[in-house]
Amino acid sequence: MQSTATFQGQQSTPALASAYENPLPVNEFNKILYDANQVFVRNHPPTAAFERAIFFGWHCAINDCKFCYMSTQPKEASGKLALRSTSSILAEVIITKELGWQSGFFSGGINAKNPKQFRELLSYVTAITNEKVWVNIGPIARRHLELYAPYVCGVVGSIETVNPAVHDFVCPSKPASPYVKMFSAADTLGLKKAMTLILGIGETIDDFLLLEKFIHEHRIDKLHIYNLIPHDGTYFEGAQPPSVEYQAVWIAKTRIAFPSLDIQAGIWEDKTEDMHLLLLAGANSISKFPALRKFGSSAAHEFEAEVQRAGRMMQGSLTTMPKRDWNAIVDALPFDTPLKEGIREKLHTYIKTMQE
Ligand code: SF4
After folding, report:
1. Average pLDDT score over residue span 275-303
2. For residue 225, what are the β-bridge partners?
3. pLDDT value of position 71
4. Are strands 47-55 and 102-107 parallel, antiparallel or unpaired?
5. What kind and span of H or E run contains 106?
6. N or C: which terminal CB in the chain sees fewer CB atoms within 10 Å?
7. What are the domain boundaries of the chain?
8. Which CATH fold topology does 26-355 show?
9. From the CA of 60, how far away is ligand 1's center (Å)?
10. Which atom of ligand 1 is nearest to 160's Cα?
């Protein structure tokens, strides 16, 4: 790989200045995609979901991961909670359900809510979803996992990279070991385990062997695999994000090695061009598309066309608003009147935004 990208405040660290292009010659790339798709077809239904992660706030007690928007915030801001209202969160949960999107993880920065508040929020969310949810709130102690277990199907560990040197540099205050401990606790409670991986932050494709080992060792059920988004103000500002082909090679290798793994690929904002490659490589679902803001847009139509191009059937819709009696849906919720009224107001605001 060529060294072309430059980074603000660049420091000496493994492979950080590499451009992340397709690591394979065209014939090998086509072959690995073909093989991965064959494995996918044998082990999964021919569908693709849009997965919507729901964030309950933007607060982080760490705020120094080098790729993260939070790292651009002054340290003193990390102590200030920026939480969404419960009604806003629950309105989004209703939209996710009614549009047929897949519920992604439920997330907020580390220590954004105390365990009692978080459990209560989970109880509200699952009253709407009628199914347990994934949670991604940093390493969770076993005693807190027990508290959340009635509402949680699995935990997500923000591992980000399996290359130890890159991890030390990029996530200096977020070691992987507490997540590994959380995975062990999840095992004992019968919860599933997912991990995140961000590409383009200093790893090379050779690190796939480390990923394979990690997934085996910790019996990971689901992988969230994202390309770096080089946010302004972060260490990676100005970096060239990895190509879709680079991400597809990682996914294809993973699919071939783990036929039944749930693989969820994050795309870069509304960049849906060539998204079908990620599906052909074996991803089950796609996330990070700004579905509320871009609902019905040309990018949303392109998203659905890319799903078709990969030979999959789209679950739910990013372009067609279903006919629903939204007030009746709110009226039927098992919540008190003030909360229901708050949800109703937010829900109509979101729907108006989507329809506009
Ligand atoms: S812990 Fe998460 S929210 Fe906090 S800085 Fe790191 S990536 Fe960002």
Report:
1. 96
2. 197, 265
3. 85
4. parallel
5. strand 102-107
6. C
7. 26-355
8. TIM Barrel (3.20.20)
9. 6
10. 7
* Pair of tokens at residue 2: 């060529």
Residues 10-21 have pLDDT tens digits of: 444 444 445 799
Cβ atoms within 10 Å, residue 101: 21
Stretch 199-226: mean pLDDT, rounded?
97
Instruction: Give me the torsion for CA of 263, 287, 176, 20, rounded to 10°.
Output: 90
CA distance 181 to 324: 44
Mean predicted confidence (pLDDT) in 20-40: 97
- CB-based contacts of 18, cutoff 8 Å, min separation 6: 1, 2, 3, 4, 5, 204
Which atom of ligand 1 lies closest to the CA of 68?
8
Q: State whether the beta carbon of 63 lies less than 6 angstroms from ligand 1.
A: yes
Indicate if the pLDDT at residue 80 is higher than 70: no
* Atom 8 in ligand 1: residue holding the nearest Cα: 68
Which among 309, 242, 234 is positioned nearest to 33, based on CA atoms? 309
At 115, the amino acid letter reads: P
Which pTM value belongs to this model?
Answer: 0.93
pLDDT at 60: 79
Q: How remote is the CA of residue 310 from the centroid of ligand 1, in Å?
A: 33
E strand or H helix that includes residue 214? helix 208-218
Confidence of residue 356 (pLDDT cuts 50, 70, 90): confident
Contact predicate 286/277, CB 8 Å: no
Query: Identity (one letter) of the amino acid at 246?
Result: Y
Q: In the structure encoding, which two tokens stand for residue 79, read together?
A: 């102590």
